[in-house]
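A further point concerns the way the authors explain their paired sequence and structure data. For illustration, here is how one protein appears when written out as sequence plus structure tokens:
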Amino acid sequence: MKSYSEWKALSETLKLQGQAYINGQFQPAISGETFPSINPATEQLLVDVASCDTADVDLAVASARSAFKSGVWAEMHPRQRKQIMLKWADLIEAHQDEFALLDTLDMGKSISEMVNIDMPDAIDCYRWTAESIDKVYGEIAPTGNDTLAMIHHEPVGVVGAITPWNYPMLMVSWKIAPAIAAGNSVVLKPSEKSPLSALRLAELATEAGIPDGVLNVLPGFGHTAGKALALHMDVNVLAFTGSTRVAGMLMGYAGESNMKRVWLEAGGKSPNLVFVDCDIEKAAAGAANAIFGNQGEVCIACSRLYVEKSIKQEFIAALLESAKRFQPGDPLDPATTMGPMVDGTQLATVERYIRSAQEEGGDVIFGGLPDYKEGEGFFAKPTIVDNANNDMTFVKEEIFGPVLAVCEFETEAEAIELANDSEYGLGAAVWTQDISRAHRVSRKIESGMVWVNTWGEGDSTVPFGGVKASGNGRDKSLHALEKYTDVKNVLIRL
């Protein structure tokens, strides 16, 4: 790991690119409009970014469709596609410090998380997905001897991807790697709050040998570029990670247009269940990490903590000790465990929910309201609110910030009921040394993912996604490839 001074010096050498990337080259938005990319730790301008809208979407989709119809990528031999994607992964790895800095400067992630989590996981995503290209087989249906029925998986065509700002490099990778590996062309709209790493990624895709038009990147806003992409009649599949509110809008846009498939990874309000037979020190450390990591700007953040009543006071004491290691600071410093919130709007959201928690009877036992000073960054405090319950607004609604609600329960059945009392169903954690309880509870929790005696772990082999208002799609694993292919049956009478 580089030192603080080394990261700062390297950050000053970055050449920031803010133009759209269409058909293998950078270009301004057709309108000429731009918006500022602001460093949330300093509130200083990084670069002006092209503000793409409907005209740019039309151009990018036409480029993607042309590349797909030509067969230059979709009909390339699978082994050759694999080799190009592996070269892409190698280039990303060679530039991983640059990508780490781009996301740290653009949205405030700590450089240590970028180096130790985001970049290794992103590189693994490209390599693992590339290796899957020539290892996914079709099927022969069990028909009678007078017919041969073959089941093929074919690329869908043009994939529109809309990604969030909290894990810019990683979330983009989870979407575009399987879509491109399957033979599709992609039009990506990264969040307007963190577009810089996606633009650099597209440039390296071309350098690796991915043909022009296969990957296009359009920075812009959701109500302009995002809406145009969702409504476009020549986009076959839309993949989205973001809020539940926007996810519902995208489903509506799909219905208004061409009935494109929409794969959604939406909001979360994940429960964390701590039982009397847990390892208290490990569970407390895990609970702190599950809400304060990445400033709480995590869709799977365990923001609802349910502790068995008989150990609550002992657990809270351990939790407060674990929470002390999360203190906001300069995200370029490797010692920093929490960077700033992504912008002033998100900081104001955190403040609003803390006030709401206090007004509804919650007790702030750690942290509290932000001490914001203009021009010094959008830093929040890691905050713990005790005596919470499921009727409180800040317990029900997704905050996307470092605010933890502490509740209690007395029985296993009550814990499960409280955990499931939410519109969301993305992730959940269970802490217990009883293997039978671990199986019982994890089966009954309404969630796409459950971690037992850990939180947030997983690699490219396991799917990521939720149920209920948390969405319907799955990123990672072979299940991700399923989203970006059509299943075709070819039956031959012999």
In short: Residues 111-132 form the longest helix (22 residues).
